[in-house]
Amino acid sequence: MSDIIQLLPDSVANQIAAGEVVQRPASAVKELMENALDSGATNIKLIVKDAGKTLIQVMDNGSGMSETDARMSFERHATSKIRKADDLFSIRTMGFRGEALASIAAIAQVEMKTRRKDTDVGVKIDIESSEVKSQEPCSCPEGTSISVKNLFYNVPARRNFLKTDSVELRHIIEEFQRVAIPNPEVSFTLHHNSTEIFHLPAGNLKQRLMNIFGSSYNTRLVPVEENTPIVNIKGFVIKPEFAKKTRGEQFFFLNKRFIKNGYLHHAVQSAFEQLLPSDSYASYFLLIDVDPKTIDINIHPTKTEVKFEDEKAVYAFLRSTIKKSLGQFNIAPSLDFDQEAHLYNMPLKPLDGIIKAPTIKVNPDYNPFTNGNPAPAKTYSESQLSNKANWEKLYSRHADNQLEFEIKKEDPQQSVDPEWDKQLHESNKKTAYQLHNKYILSHIKTGFMVIDQQGAHERILYERIMESLEKHKSATQQELFPKTLEMNASDFALVKSLEPEIKAMGFDISEFGKNTFVIHGIPADTADHDSASLLEGLIENYKQNLQELKSDKRENLARSMAFNMAVKSGKELRQEEMNSLIDELFACSMPYSTPGGKPTITTFSLEDLDKRFKK
Predict the structure, then answer these.
(1) What is the DSSP string of 29-69?
(2) How far, in Å, CA of 349 to CA of 408, rounded?
(3) Domain spanning 417-615 has what CATH number?
(4) What would you report as the CA-atom Rg of the chain, rounded to the nearest whole angstrom?
(5) What pTM did the predictor assign?
(6) β 109-115/143-149 pair status
(7) Tell me: the pLDDT tens digits for 135-155?
């Protein structure tokens, strides 16, 4: 029997390895930008076309490479950052495993131009499917320029699995932000299809965040900073009143590398305890610096997950540092522990040592409708005011006493008509009752039903919005004063991709400058909502639904809009509003569940109630 195990050709092995490193265009953007940072660049430009499917180009003014280094950089496991195994525990650079360029070159057409400072001529290399097509001297500026063309051109199955341009662009923007935020001393630019999306000049961290997320963040940021022998923490958290319903703007950077860590996220959330609603999440931009020997960053292909040597200590320092900053900037109540307990809020003793009871000057004879001078005000002491209050109590009656008094006032010969009582009983069967401003109780033949008012309204609105989206027509209420809404680049790209569907729901919006929309009108049945808050809430819930479920755009938008517009628990409803809600709910095609699948109605039979009262 012949042998069946063979070594894979390098081209096939590289394509398999590329599947771990390059999952989509954003993965290539991340690797190329990190390499540019490692080269010592102070200016990095990113150019993409068709969301990176056609072109990804990264240009930097870093140290550049020699002809030999440029050729070696495309070999697997070739790196300038590791010489021995111990170096893995002292890494502070970004790309270090020597797989990025080799993986990208295996699935794309790559052109590299690079020149070192001490040379007059650079080198140009063209590679396709891991095969070097040409290598020759060229004239180019100092630094390195890498162009990745036609990503996955030789792996059509992978290319077919890429999402729409708007989705892939959002992923590119996310990776761009993750590299740009922890490196504010480096200037970055991002162009997509000849349109500049970001222009980030060098500056400090606060300026970088404002340039990315908008100037409104100037008043939202709370600085956080603490230096300890174990960990150094600095950055910003967002004030609680600007918390969002999604986990979008949550950034941890460990030694300037973006990471995801649920344990540290819990530390931040616990620091905001009692400051945030249960359904809101804190936003933060935190740079954590530790000794590289105390972490392991090589446990995940994308290096976004790490292991800490002493995770509990980092948790404790992070939580206490944020709580300290929230108290220091009067975001959370704080106590002055240097003050003696018995001195809290004690007034100072007057100089003469005599404490006088306060008096209140009032004028009971004052009449605002007379033209004459008001009578001189009389002075009442505290005891006189107390007596007056006691006297007025004689005229105050509890609601129950008042009801009893009014009944006694009636003619003793008058009695309750039994026929009237019967009619009242029949009418009560059609009457709805609100319980704790959250549930609606209503009679049914076999007992009664309980309706979740928010869930029921969500179902009604969801079906109404889906109908308008299918018909591509909905009534719009024009704004008397149009509102301007500034967004971050990622949300702006998302709204652009959803613009036809958003307009079909009744919004009248138009693009107005960079990352800005003008809201001219909103859906007609949302006139009592703030237009900017309504659109922001719609986008936030849309992003949250993207993380939790797989649904098409229209269904996601309808669910998001229904959630924002629905009457919330805690709102008191009038009788006609409850009756209308019940009628509209049972007119729905699926009245028994919310768009998210939760029940809207539960019933209780008389038999169940009878059992509870039987001994």
Answers:
(1) HHHHHHHHHHTT-SEEEEEEEGGGTSEEEEEE-S----HHH
(2) 56
(3) 3.30.1540.20
(4) 34
(5) 0.68
(6) antiparallel
(7) 999 999 999 999 999 998 888
